[in-house]
Amino acid sequence: xxxxxxxxxxxxxxxxxxxxxxxxxxxxxxxxxxxxxxxxxxxxxxxxxxxxxxxxxxxxxxxxxxxxxxxxxxxxxxxxxxxxxxxxxxxxxxxxxxxxxxxxxxxxxxxxxxxxxxxxxxxxxxxxxxxxxxxxxxxxxxxxxxxxxxxxxxxxxxxxxxxxxxxxxxxxxxxxxxxxxxxxxxxxxxxxxxxxxxxxxxxxxxxxxxxxxxxxxxxxxxxxxxxxxxxxxxxxxxxxxxxxxxxxxxxxxxxxxxxxxxxxxxxxxxxxxxxxxxxxxxxxxxxxxxxxxxxxxxxxxxxxxxxxxxxxxxxxxxxxxxxxxxxxxxxxxxxxxxxxxxxxxxxxxxxxxxxxxxxxxxxxxxxxxxxxxxxxxxxxxxxxxxxxxxxxxxxxxxxxxxxxxxxxxxxxxxxxxxxxxxxxxxxxxxxxxxxxxxxxxxxxxxxxxxxxxxxxxxxxxxxxxxxxxxxxxxxxxxxxxxxxxxxxxxxxxxxxxxxxxxxxxxxxxxxxxxxxxxxxxxxxxxxxxxxxxxxxxxxxxxxxxxxxxxxxxxxxxxxxxxxxxxxxxxxxxxxxxxxxxxxxxxxxxxxxxxxxxxxxxxxxxxxxxxxxxxxxxxxxxxxxxxxxxxxxxxxxxxxxxxxxxxxxxxxxxxxxxxxxxxxxxxxxxxxxxxxxxxxxxxxxxxxxxxxxxxxx
Length: 696
Ligand code: ADP
Description:
The structure is a single chain. Helix content is about 45%, strand content about 30%. It contains 22 helices and 25 strands. The strands form six sheets. The chain has a six-stranded antiparallel beta sheet with strand order 15-14-13-18-17-16, with helices on both faces. The protein is elongated, with a radius of gyration of 67 Å.
């Protein structure tokens, strides 16, 4: 049986005849003439089959839905890896490895639809010579239709294109690789660009920070120089170091340190530089004395200096960084202070002064050893103020605490001055001390401390007391004969008047004046001793100041002919004070005005009460005036101005002291305005309404 017979050629040849010449040019002749004569003339069936059979183009024919293999040429059998026995079998049975692949379903679709299916480079898994492999094919399922348009057979042609596919695949892969390469290159380029940008930003930053460092060096308050290499070539020298060196930038930069600063020859600096460069060890000097260039001369200076080796990235010394600070002034100042401090502590020791230090913020109280001894503290001890206050005797303690609070008050002038008694633990006698101190503030006006000294005035006070007792006693004893003397003189005066002996009368008058003067002096001394013993008391009453002025005017103008005494009292003024003592103060001030003014000059006494609260009494003269330095002290007891003019005028220096004490007992103030050679005005200010204040 010919191969051709097996697929019922007789049924279909009348409609179609397939003619395969080769896979590359297959053609079909549809509606072939079925006339046997013409058949014979045109084709011979066997020839066709033979041609198909021998065609290298794999070809197969299937019929039925199960794709019964009706024809498969050698090419197709080789493709499948099968032999002739597959003819007549359903495709899946003949080539079971096609199971699970899409061929059968496509064939069935072609079978039913009659539409040709062709595809290129499609994979197919087949087993050939026992080896399962996937190859690629261009294949076609061509439906051959009968005259009813129904598929009667499918012509399957195929070509193994695996090499081409592999080639294409390799090209594709190569393309992919190239694409990947290109992409990798592009991203490398991108990275390179970003790195480049970063690099240039870093370079900018570096340049900026270099500039920054340079500016810092230029503006640094200490001298900085950079010396390069073993010759110490000056690369950088900032203005501060040039000033210390006494050189200009242009004179030193680029030169070796040795040649730029010849004055250093014989001084150790050049050797230090070499040592630092060679050993890599820094050299630091404190308070070093050096001779520096000063306009061609040499000047001595004290400096702090650092010579720092500069290392390369290979850890080799490439240069030396010099940091130099001139501290001549500070050191000299410190030495002066040390000397002063030393002298001060010597003076404090010699003067037997105790020093104290109180810190309000912490309550810390401390001082020198003498202070600690007086307060019964051990030498190491710094104590709380309350413990120190405990050493002050009960009667004085509150007063001292109040004085400290007062000096620390914002409104006060920060001065602290007080006398008090202390009796440290285990001490048998009390010690009278005079404390003087001052409050110290920081730059924000915050109090930092109250510092001062204490002086032991126990003995001094006792001496003063003895002196006062003596004066009181002597004054008292003198007063009795003086009173008798006054009485006798007055008796004599009356007799002289009666005898109309004017010469005698005038002599007696002068004697009485001298006795009165002496009496006033003794009264002054008595008052002082009364003051000191606290026995001076005020006998206050309401009186009219105008009336007092009239009385004084009458009395003085009658007795004083050397000066023009002018009392101005335009209106009455009621005042509550000790009339006798206020009168005494005015007389004292007028007495002084006369003593210290040339004869014939004017002395004006007046008062005013502008605010209605205080009265101000003025005693104005045209005398010698008081120098500013003396103005602060003339109210002190026994103080007298030491000038050629004032020195020749008799006095004890107690008048103004008494005036001040009396005025202060009245809660008033006494002050003065004066200029040398022009005159002086004493001003007494008293509160008008002091009746509510306690009487002394
Ligand atoms: P004295 O007894 O020395 O006058 P005072 O205490 O009254 O004592 O005065 C103290 C010093 O003040 C005097 O020594 C004098 O130098 C000076 N003084 C007082 N009043 C006047 C004045 N009106 N003009 C110039 N100096 C005066």
